[in-house]
Design brief:
The chain is mainly alpha-helical. The protein has a domain at about 5-90: Winged helix-like DNA-binding domain superfamily/Winged helix DNA-binding domain (Arc Repressor Mutant, subunit A), CATH 1.10.10. About 40% of the residues lie in helices and about 10% in strands. It has seven helices and two strands, in the order H-H-H-H-E-E-H-H-H. Strands 1-2 form a two-stranded antiparallel sheet. It is globular, with a radius of gyration of 21 Å.
Length: about 170
C-alpha cells in the first residue's frame, strides 16, 4: 500500500485551507453568515441541511475559530453563530468563488450577482497584488515558490529549474 500523506501533515497552505473550508456545506454556511444568518434554524431552513450535518459543521467552524457561538436566549438556552475576525477574512475567497461560477454563465442565467451596496451597480471581484495593484490572472506571470518555512519536500517541489542552454554550433 502506498504511503499517503495526511492532509493535516502537509505544509501547503492550500491543503490546510481546504482542511478548514473545503467541505461544501462549510462554504454555504459561511456564505449565509455573510448574508446575516446567525441562528441554527435560519441556516437549516435556508440550506435544507440535516440537523446532524449542520451541528457537525457549526461545531467545526467554531473549533476552527471562524464562527463564535454565543447564547441569545436563556430559557431554553439557544445559540447564535457569528463570524469572527478570522471568519470575515474569508469573504474575498467566497466572493471570488461566486464570481468564478458566474463567469461561466450568461448574464441572464445568473441567479445571484454582487452589487455595490449604495449604487446597486454590478461589480466583478478580482484578485490583485496588494503591493502593486496588478491583477493576478491565469497567466504564468505569478508562480508559487518555497517560502521561508518550507521543508525539504516543499523546497524540492519548487526548486529553481535549470534553464537548458541552447547552443548552435
Amino acid at each position: 500500500m502506498a504511503n499517503r500523506i495526511r492532509l493535516e501533515d502537509r505544509e501547503c497552505p492550500l491543503s490546510t485551507t481546504v482542511q478548514h473550508v473545503g467541505e461544501w456545506w462549510t462554504l454555504l454556511i459561511l456564505h449565509d453568515a455573510f448574508d446575516g444568518y446567525s441562528r441554527f434554524d435560519q441556516f437549516q431552513d435556508n440550506l435544507g441541511i440535516s440537523s446532524s450535518m449542520l451541528t457537525a459543521r457549526l461545531k467545526t467552524l467554531v473549533a476552527d475559530g471562524l464562527l463564535e457561538r454565543r447564547p441569545y436566549q436563556s430559557n431554553p438556552v439557544r445559540y447564535e453563530y457569528l463570524l469572527t475576525d478570522l471568519g470575515r477574512t474569508l469573504r474575498p475567497v467566497i466572493l471570488a468563488l461566486a464570481a468564478w461560477g458566474n463567469s461561466r454563465l450568461a448574464p441572464e442565467q445568473r441567479s445571484m450577482i454582487l452589487v455595490h451596496a449604495t449604487t446597486g451597480d454590478e461589480v466583478e471581484p478580482v484578485v490583485v497584488d496588494a503591493g502593486t495593484g496588478r491583477r493576478l490572472d491565469d497567466s504564468d506571470t505569478y508562480v508559487f515558490t518555497a517560502g521561508p518555512a518550507a521543508g525539504t519536500a516543499m523546497r524540492n517541489r519548487y526548486a529553481p529549474r535549470q534553464a537548458t542552454p541552447t547552443h548552435t554550433d
